[in-house]
């Protein structure tokens, strides 16, 4: 049965914000989520057992313990959660996955921060970032000084399904969309989404020097996942402009 298995129920969290890190374009969410978990040495808070997640087990270097491929990590001091995924969620299973996760959002008063890249050819400019929201999320964006979209767009894949469910059930959420490399893992876009999006929304400070200084190593480490995602389907999580009149 689909459920969220809480492992650290002794942690005290008060309507925490949760950074969603499902793999998508540029692996922006994945890179940002992994960095937060590592930088803050976050506690393994829960395992996610939802329909739509591949029935596999994963393990880490220098650790023999098997883990579920999708997990939630917590930082009690910062009142922060991170959804970390080591596998892509197939687009055809996105609705089942979203239904499972959304129920937990509602029950525990979690405010999700959805992350998505929007494919743009790389340049020397700093990737642009903007925010979208549901419920009281617009107020969070305004308070954080995060700009609005400059054109009409759509978010697809599992993250889009999650956003759709939150919208349907009148819950509060925030979405961050950043320009990112459409073909390769993009640590620079992840850096921007952390510094200009997650930090002002949550009030935390997260060093990102490692993302900048080890860009090539991060790209190499994430490239295999990016290739697997391309093999799964082109409808992975991403934001796309809807240029209806062009």
Automatic annotation (TrEMBL):
It comes from the Archaea. Pfam families: PAC2. Residues 224-246 are annotated as: Disordered. This is Proteasome assembly chaperone family protein. It comes from Halogranum rubrum.
